[in-house]
Amino acid sequence: MRDFLLAYGTFAIYYVMAITVIYFVIFSLSIRHAFPIKRGIQYNRIPKLSGSGHVPPVSLLVPAYNEELTIIENVRSLLALNYPEYEVIVINDGSKDDTFKVMVDEFNLKKIDPIVSKHIKTGKVRGIYHNPDYPTLYFIDKENGGKADSLNAGINLSHYSLISTIDADSLLEKDALTRMARVYMENPEETVAVGGNVRIVNSCTVEDGIVKDVRFPKQLFPALQNVEYIKAFLGGRIGWSAINGLIIVSGAFGVFQKDKVIAVGGYRGGYPGEDMNIVIKLHRYCLENDIPYRVAFCPDAVCWTQAPDTYRILSSQRMRWGRGNLKNMVEEGIHMVFRPKYKVFGLVTLPYNIFFETLNPYFRITGFLAILGYWLLNMTDWMTLVVFALVNFLSCFLLSLGALFIEESAFSRYPKISDLNKLILFSFLMFVGYRQVGVWWRFRGHIDFLRNNNTWGTMVRTNFNK
Q1: CA 278, CA 284: separation in Å to the nearest integer?
Q2: Helix (H) or strand (E) holding 48
C-alpha cells in the first residue's frame, strides 16, 4: 500500500504540474491576443461594417423548447441588430407551454408553404409561419426531437451560406453579429466557425431585448458562474483559438459555414453536448480532407444568457455537460488522440480535454483518498499537505485574477468599484466548495452516460428582469 501511494503521489505531482503549465501557457496566449482589443486596433471598423453591403448575410437559428417567458425579448433583440442582411428562424421544438401561441400572437404569424431543402433529415415539421410585416422572421413548429434536430430543421429552411445558433434564453448586443462577421471576413475561405463571448444577464436591466444596465449578479450561483464564465472565455478560449485548438463553440452564440455543417451531417441528436460535437466533427472533416481551416473566437461579440440560479437547476446543467463531454470523447474524439494527422487538435486539444477535463473528477476523488491514506499511514505531515494545497489554490486563483485583468483592461463591463470587489471575492469563493461540488456533478454526469441517460434535465426559465 505504501509503495502504491508513493507511486500515485509522484504521478499526482506531475499531473498537477502539467495542467498548471498548460493553463498558464493558454492564459499567456489569451493575454497576448487581448492587447489588440485594449488598444482598439481590430475593432475600429465595426460602425462602418454595420452599414456595409460587403458583410455576408447570416441565418440566425433559435431553437426553443418551453421558452414562453423569454422568447419575445429574444426575438425582438435579434430583429433590432445592427446588421445589413440577415434572417431570424425560430424553431419551436414541440413546446408544452405557450411558446407557439405567444410567437404567433405577438408577430401575427400566418402559415406558409415555402420551399425547404432536405439536406439533413429531421423530425416532422408541423408548419412554417411568416408575416410580411416582419420579412426577416420565420417560425418553424415541429414535433419534439431535441435541440440538435431543431437546429437541423432551421438549417434546411435557411437561405444564407452562414448560420448562427442562438439560445432562446439569450440576448445579443446590437453589434455582436457585426463583430463576428469581422472575424469571419479576416479569412472567409478558412474560417469554418466563430464563437462568441457569453456573459451572465442575471440582475441586469433588460428593455426591449437590450441589456441597458450591466450589474453583477445578486444571487450566489449566478455570481459564481459569472466569474467562472469570465475565466473560461477570456482566460481560456482566446488562447485556444490562437493555436486553432478550440474544441467548443458555445451553443448560446456561434457562427458557422453552412456547407461545412451539412458536409458533416449536421447536428447529431442524442448529444447533450451538441455544441462540442459539431466542432469536433468540423475539425475532423477539414483535417481528414486536407482543407485549410480555423475555428475562431471573438471575445467582444457578446451574448447575454440566463444562468441557473438554484442548486437543482445548476446541478442538472453541469451533469448534462459532464455527460456530453464524456460521450463526445468516447464516440468522437478518442480515435484522433496523439495522431499527427490531426495536428494541434489531436496532439494537444483532445489529450488535454481527456486527461484534464473528462478524467479530472477521478483524479480529484482518488487524490483525496490518497491524502487520507498518507495521513492514516503517517506518510506525511499536515504542514506538507497545507503547503501543497496552498500552492495549488494560489496558482488557480492567480489565473482567475488574470482573466479579471483581461476583463477590466479590454472590456470593462463592470466599471463600479463595488462590482470589481465582488469579482475578486467570488473568484476566491469559487475555489472554496463550488469547484469541489462541480467534480461531483461531473462524476454523476458520467454515471448517467453509463446508464445511457440522454435526457436534457431540469431547466426553468424566468423573465429577464426578475
Answers
A1: 10
A2: helix 46-50
Euclidean distance between CA atoms 441 and 361, whole angstroms:
9
Order of strands, edge to edge, in the sheet holding 294-305? 110-112, 125-130, 137-142, 86-93, 58-64, 162-166, 253-257, 191-200, 294-305, 170-172
**CA 374 to centroid of chain Cα atoms:** 39
Helix (H, G, I), strand (E, B) or coil at 309: coil
Query: How many CB atoms within 10 Å of residue 456?
Result: 12
- pTM (whole model) above 0.85: yes
Per-residue cell: 262: 451539412
Cell of 201: 444577464
Instruction: Kindly report the backbone phi and psi dihedral angles of residue 57, in degrees, each rounded to the nearest multiple of 5, phi listed first.
Output: -70, 150
Beta strands 205-207 and 125-130: pairing type? unpaired
If we measure between CA atoms, which residue out of 455, 399, 206 comes closest to residue 306? 206
Q: Per mean pLDDT, which range of 37-46, 56-65, 197-206, 223-232 is the poorest?
A: 37-46
How much is the pLDDT for 45?
54
Residue 19 CB contacts under 8 Å (≥ 6 apart), including other chains: 356
pLDDT digits (tens, 9 = 90+) for 139-149: 999 999 999 99
d(CA 151, CA 142): 11
Query: CA separation (Å) from 434 to 223, 329, 425, 439?
Result: 11, 25, 13, 9
Element (H, E) at 141: strand 137-142
Rounded distance between C-alpha atoms, residue 38 and residue 59, angstroms: 30
For 347, counting Cβ atoms within 10 Å of its Cβ (0-12 exposed, 13-18 middle, 19+ buried), the class is middle
User: Which one, of 47, 305, 88, 90, lies nearest residue 178 by Cα?
Assistant: 47
